[in-house]
Design a protein that fits this description.
The chain is built from four helices and five strands. By secondary structure, it is an alpha+beta fold. The strands form two sheets. It has a three-stranded antiparallel β-sheet, with no helix packed on it. Strands 3-4 form a two-stranded antiparallel ribbon.
Length: 278
Amino acid sequence: MGPTFSRIGAVRVVLEPKPGPPTDPNIPRAFIDIFTDISPLFVINNESGWYEGWMIHDLVVPPIAPPRPDGRAQFATITERDAEMLKKMGTGNNVPAHIFTVDGRAPHFPGASDRFPNRQTNIVPLHVSMGTYNAMQQADAHSYWEFNYLGTNWVHPPYELPFTGGFPDQFGQAPDTFRDGEIGKLQSIVPGSGPAGIQNDPKVFGDNPSLPRAALFTALSGLESQSGPLSDLFLGRTDNIDIRFAAAIALLFNVLMVVVAIIAIALTVPRDDPGVGR
């Protein structure tokens, strides 16, 4: 470790009283300013780089409101039927204005004493970007970001993983993203053909939810808890523990298939006779 240097950092959240928008920071249309100041900022590998700030918002059960004419919930609200279903979860925690929990029990925030699989968080965090900024080595960094409902309130989309089949074209139907050739269509999981200029079919080269690796991932990622020797691999961050466990099992399945293939080749492929051709 190198010498210790003194440094200071601060993040300021300011409500901007623009004419027209509300002055209540709890209303989405309010303009919120974020000021980040770090003096000095020691960058990675002694090089200048880009940095980004994030705020974490824990999902809250929305208020109840009458549905729209088509029967669906209004924006940022739930229907009476939705509220009844949520209240039946766990011990009844999921009622309007309460922090939503995946098991319906009292909120448990991540803590240093958490340990998979018996004790882990049950809240749903949403990460809101506070913008990116640049800094030179050991220079002061000052950034400004304005939150407003016109486009800068950027949240990382908590969409389904492609291994589950993606989204259906029609709500209420089975996922058909893979069948439509949309899983991995624009991602690197579908390899390019290089100079040949051939467009590889995502349905052939992409991640198929019906294949064993994907099926294992999908099935195990829905489990509420797992136990065994693998549990020690998941210390630390616990908000995505089920996904990490499922991915680890899927990876081990792939390793098993490789071992089986090597054994099959060793037993079935004839060895060259050293005396042939001599």
